[in-house]
Every structure is written in structure tokens, then in C-alpha cells.
Amino acid sequence: MASIIEIQNLNKTYDSGFQALKHIDLDIHQGEIFALLGPNGAGKTTLISIICGIVNPTSGMVRADGYDILSEYRQARSKIGLVPQELSTDAFETVWATVNFSRGLFGKAPNPEHIEKVLRDLSLWEKRDSKIMMLSGGMKRRVMIAKALSHEPKILFLDEPTAGVDVELRREMWQMVRGLREQGVTIILTTHYIEEAEEMADRIGVINKGELMLVEGKTSLMQKLGKKELRLALREPLDAVPADLNDHSLALSEDGYELVYSFDSQQEHTGISELLRKLGEQGIDYKDLRTRESSLEDIFVNLVHSNDDTVAG
């Protein structure tokens, strides 16, 4: 699959000595939705800022649609639309004027038909003559997206696009992002909402302390790192997990009424039948059992914690 963004051995060290990015290698495929996950301070915004030409790298190479972001800055930047986390736009201008002006900043000839299409796609057409200051927070965020799309970029960066947006509007924006992908726009998304990445992304990158820990297709990531849990609701509480069951990955709830067995669903032998047999031998009776798959949030938390433990060790 063709790469629309190519990053090789990218490093960023600030004057203070803080190393924000460490040897980042990443290819982002044309037409995909790529979610970049990481805790605060992980390096997400620094990485985006370098690709978009806002921050200069210390070393390394970045190309956007084949153009080097340093030596061919104008060409590279013209391929990119950026929706920053902060809502910053001229409050006294109308929606139409704001979006139209943004197109002009990229040296593009006027194209009222394109601006109209963008505003209609974002449900902003009825607000085209409204001043920005009169809009709700969700509508202002739509205007930011419209500005980013005004010059017809092939790559769109969304930095925390649904921060502070209600659930209904968030789902509308997810639908809009899928529509953009169908039009051939490559979407790079940073988010604190794990369910957002799980819902939308084709591939997921996890960054922590400036290092790219993994890049994986969402489905294969869930299969590789996802675990399943068997939860057994007990008829009588236990004080502790019986010694005969210590060879199983068992946890006991605080109230003693639930046993949780973690297993790898990809393995041929899950150990469930053996566990249930041993429970019977121990005279441990249960009234209900259910399974639960790991969510992307579980996987993310485990990855970040394991990385922190490695650094600490």
C-alpha cells in the first residue's frame, strides 16, 4: 500500500535538553484513518507539529505526499490540513469569510463551489453568514475542520477533534471523518477517547515518552494483545483463591463473590474446562458465568504500564 507520509529516524530535542521524540520511524498509508494514542506529554503534538511544519526536527526525514517537509515546505504544507486542539479563529468574521480566507492563504484560486460543499458536508451551510462568536463550541470545531479542508488537502490531521464535544456531536463527526476517508483523504487522529480510536481507526500507533511503541492494524492488535476474561459469580464468597487453583490466572473480587479468569482466546486450549472441573472438585459453586473481551483501553493501559516498568527497571 502506498505511503502518503514517510518518517525516518525522526528526533526532536528542545534547547532545555528534553528529548520529545526518539528515533521515530513511521509510514502512514494513503486513504487510511490512523489513530495516534499516548498519554499527555508522550510526543503526539510534537510529532504532528513537525509534520505540519510548525516545529523543526532535530534530525531525521519526513515526506508528505512525496515532498520533503523542510526542503519542499510549500508543496508539502499544501497537501496537509490541520485541525488543532485549541479553538482559534477570528470571532468577528462570518463562517464563509473565515473558510474562504483560509483557502487563499494557501495560494489557491477562489472556488465557491468547493467552499459550499465543505460547509454543507459539515452541516455549516445554514450558518455561513453567522459570525464565529455566535456559534456553539461544537459548531466552532466544525469551522476549524472546514478551514483545514478549504484548500483541498490530501492529508488531514485532527488533534483531539472531539475534546469537549457532546456524545451526539462526536458520533456525527465520526461519520463525517469516514466520509472524508471515502473521498480519499488520509486522516491522522490523536485522541484521549479510546473508544474513538476503537470505533474509527484502521491502524493504531502508541507513543509514550517520545518513543513509538508499536504500530498495528486495529483488528490484529486486538487479536495479538487482547485477552478474554471469564467471570464467575459465586454462590458463596471466598476468603482467598484456593491454593490448588494457583496455577490458573485467577483474581478474586474484593467482596469474594466473583472469580475472574484471564485467558488467551487465540490459544487452542483456553484452560476453561480444566478450571471448571477443579472448581467442582473444590466444592466451589457458581450461579452465573460470562466472558468479556479486552477493550483497546485495556490494551493501551497495559502497554504504557509495561513500558514504564521497563524504563524504571
UniProtKB/TrEMBL annotation:
GO terms, molecular function: ATP binding; ATP hydrolysis activity
Record domain ABC transporter: where: 5-234
Family matches, as PROSITE patterns: ABC_TRANSPORTER_1, ABC_TRANSPORTER_2
Organism: Saccharospirillum salsuginis
Top-rank taxon: Bacteria
Protein name in the entry: ABC transporter ATP-binding protein
Entry keywords, A to Z: ATP-binding, Nucleotide-binding, Transport
Residue ranges that the Swiss-Prot or TrEMBL entry lists as coiled coil: none
Cited SUPFAM superfamilies: P-loop containing nucleoside triphosphate hydrolases
